[in-house]
Design brief:
The chain has 9 helices and 26 strands. By secondary structure, the chain is α/β, with parallel strands linked by helices. Helix 1 packs parallel to helix 6. The chain is globular. The protein binds flavin-adenine dinucleotide.
Length: about 425
């Protein structure tokens, strides 16, 4: 015999925190909701781990970045969950789930049953071993997905200040970590196989701006090659990173950001999976009507793409969680989740936002020498995506609105000439 709850959220990350707040806004009774998380702390704003958390001066620490501060909402501390009668089962990994019986089995052997389950298990960092390279468990090799990883990175930066850091991967984790390592006075080299950084989103022109900026801060780039092995000393520490192109980089710290894999394994064979995630409809409901999935783990219909996709962004985690709770509480009378993809990053003094889809013809605009600049993507004669660096709050709102409205664009040269004015006057 175990405990029974009306609602259970499996996973205690960003989506779980926003779902909990939405449940309380809509009115639940004490004892109805339980959150089970492998992490030892209640939900927090994960993006802080590669930003404020890594600052050498006045770094962000819990409880300051518990959800839902990222959306300027109430900050949900352990006390908040207690006051709202929400059961937090922390530091507890769920070992198995039976969606037919509506039960979960925790690592400590407890069976917890639910009427409605929200899967918010997020994703895990891909390991080098999955690409045939050994050495992930070396004490100076670091990934960055959770608080424990971030603490390790902070300790590593303190212990080898002034030393060499190699960042493997040119996505946003790599870019944000590289900036933090520089700020912590390390000598940084980034290694990635693509021709430029942030290859899934940036155009070569946009990437070139950031790479030049990073170079001005002392970051070196080794592009078009990958890690092939580590040199490891007798203490088990990596001393050098060997690359496929035959070169070798000395290393005191290695940070690896080579992508993520959604945590779906508990549901394989029980729920329909698609594109690596749990397939859900516009109400975030899975192939089992009592089970919803939100955040990084969910593959949901996205209008601007015209198909279902999985998104790995904090805004999508927040909003999909709220939408699922709305759908659950309104017994599926709620509308479909109509989500405009939004992604952002902040590095050094720079800050950018992106909305929509980066497909079709691209038009750049603005001052690429260090001012405000951006890009639009136009597909089938309509604006489908917008990127902006260095904008004001109003300008970011304008590109978001314009992208949502999908205005017709007849003349790309005219769009380029108008630049930001186009979005502001749509
Ligand atoms: P998560 O927040 O990952 O939460 C999943 C939770 O489930 C975790 O607590 C995990 O321990 C738990 N869990 C998993 N399996 C089990 C199990 N079997 N039993 C119990 N618990 C389990 N996005 C942006 O848009 N902009 C950014 O600048 C940005 N920066 C980021 C920086 C970092 C360092 C990282 C790691 C991510 C960043 N992201 C950013 C992405 C964003 O944080 C994620 O999209 C978001 O956290 C997804 O929320 P989630 O709730 O789906 O998953």
């Amino acid at each position: 015999m175990g405990r029974a709850f009306l609602y259970v959220i499996l996973g205690g990350g960003v989506a779980a925190g926003y779902a909990a707040l939405e449940f309380t806004k809509r009115g639940i009774s004490h004892g109805e909701l339980c959150i089970i998380s492998e992490e030892p702390v209640p939900p927090y704003e994960r993006p802080a781990l590669s930003k404020g958390f890594l600052l050498p001066e006045a770094p962000a620490r819990l409880p300051s970045f518990h959800t839902c501060v990222g959306a300027n909402e109430e900050r949900l501390t352990p006390k908040w969950y207690k006051e709202h009668g929400i059961e937090l089962v922390l530091g507890s990994r769920v070992k198995s789930v039976d969606v037919r019986r509506k039960t979960l089995l925790t690592g400590s052997g407890e069976t917890i049953s639910y009427k409605v389950l929200i899967i918010a298990t997020g994703a895990r960092a891909l390991k080098l071993e999955e690409f045939g390279v050994k050495g992930s468990d070396s004490e100076n090799v670091c990934y960055l997905r959770d608080l424990a990883d971030a603490n390790r990175l902070v300790n590593l930066m303190e212990s080898c200040s002034g030393g060499n850091a190699v960042v493997i991967g040119g996505g946003y984790i790599g870019m944000e970590c590289a900036a933090s390592l520089v700020i912590n006075r390390m000598s940084v080299t980034m290694v990635f196989p693509e021709e430029h950084c942030m290859a899934r989103l940036f155009t070569p022109k946009i990437a070139s701006f950031y790479e030049e900026f990073y170079k001005s801060k002392g970051v070196k780039f080794v592009k078009g090659t990958i890690l092939s092995s580590f040199d490891i000393d007798s203490n088990g520490k990596v001393t050098a990173v060997n690359l496929r192109d035959g070169s070798s980089l000395p290393a005191d710290t290695v940070v690896v950001g080579i992508g993520i894999r959604p945590n779906t394994s508990l549901f394989e064979g029980q729920l329909t999976l698609e594109k690596g995630g749990i397939k859900v409809n516009g109400k975030m409901q899975s192939s089992n009507s009592s089970v919803y999935a939100v955040g990084d783990v969910a593959t949901f219909p996205v209008k601007v793409f015209g198909e279902s996709r999985r998104l790995e962004h904090v805004d999508s985690a927040r909003k999909s969680a709220r939408h699922a709770v709305g759908a659950i509480m309104e017994q599926n009378q709620a509308g479909e989740f109509d989500y405009l993809p939004f992604f952002y990053s902040r590095v050094f003094t720079l800050s950018w936002q992106f909305y929509g889809d980066n497909a079709g013809d691209v038009v750049h605009f603005g001052d690429f020498s260090g001012g405000t600049f951006g890009a639009y993507w136009v597909r089938n004669g309509h604006l489908v995506g917008s990127f902006l660096e260095g904008g004001t709050k109003e300008e970011y709102e304008a590109i978001a609105k314009a992208t949502r409205l999908k205005p017709a664009v007849e003349d790309l040269a005219e769009l380029e000439r108008q630049g930001l004015v186009f979005a502001v006057t749509v």
